[in-house]
Amino acid sequence: MTVRTRVRVLAFARIAELLGKRDEELGLGPAARVEDAWSALTERVPALAALRSSTRAARNGRIAAFDEPLADGDEVAFLPPVGGG
Amino acid sequence: MLRIAREPIDPKSVEARAHSENCGGVVTFLGIVRARADDGRSVDGLHYEAFDEMAVAEFEAITAEARERFGNVRIAAEHRVGDLKVGDVAVVVCVAAEHRGEAFAACRYAIDELKRRAPIWKKEHYVDGGGEWKANAARVT
């Protein structure tokens, strides 16, 4: 039996534009990390790869490192450099 | 408390949220869409979007920090999202305090940190066509 880690991905601003959507469900492998969710997106939209160094991730609403493990049902957000105000 | 607004902001209502009868000083910062971008291009309008829940939580943290630094200040803020035109109010930060000194200091701190840390994004649309996502100067790592 294959263990899947299902996560909901949220994308914003330029990342959402390139992705063509603001959220989606991903089925990742076992022991998945934030990096695996990002990789799943960049495989489909290679232009995203150039944004990796300026992108921060949040897991369930808190800033998370890309090597942070994911749990089934997590929400992962990818945040470009902010520009509010 | 930060409110994410999908309709035009009324600064008076933000001031009303911040104020209490023990406050003798109220400082309100208005961020307004301007016609000229930093690179000199003519701006037709701005598009803002936010990660609402995280932006609200980040501003809660900023408010707690401001109270630690400046004492018993009361802070209310509102940030618009969606499509804005030149002259529209994009953000309001209002601080009420017993005296003006801490109100000015806390207002400066709150808007600076909001711009630096809150997950809110801005795309400039130009009069001569096209648009660009613009990041603020400093980022949190």
Provide a descriptive summary of the structure in words.
The complex is a heterodimer of chains A (85) and B (141). Chain A has 85 residues and is of the alpha+beta class. Chain A has a single domain (16-79), classed as Ubiquitin-like (UB roll) (Roll), CATH 3.10.20. Chain A has two helices and five strands. Chain A has helices at residues 13-19, 34-44; strands at residues 5-11, 23-28, 56-59, 62-64, 75-79. The longest helix of chain A is centred in the middle third of the chain and has 11 residues, at 34-44. Chain B has a single domain, classed as Aldehyde Oxidoreductase, domain 3 (Alpha-Beta Complex), CATH 3.90.1170.40. Chain B has three helices and eight strands; from the N terminus they run βαββαβββαββ. In chain B, a hairpin with a 4-residue loop joins β7 (120-126) and β8 (131-134). Chain B starts with a strand and ends in a 7-residue tail after the last strand.
Number of domains of chain B: 1
* Greatest interface: A-B, 15 and 28 residues
Helices and strands of chain A: which structural class? alpha+beta
Radius of gyration of chain A: 12 Å
Strand order of the largest sheet of chain B: 1-4-6-2
Low-confidence stretches of chain B: none
Please count the helical segments of chain A.
Answer: 2
What composes the largest sheet of chain A?
5 strands, mixed
CATH superfamily of chain B: Molybdopterin biosynthesis MoaE subunit
Coarse morphology of chain A: globular
- Structural class assignment of chain B: alpha+beta
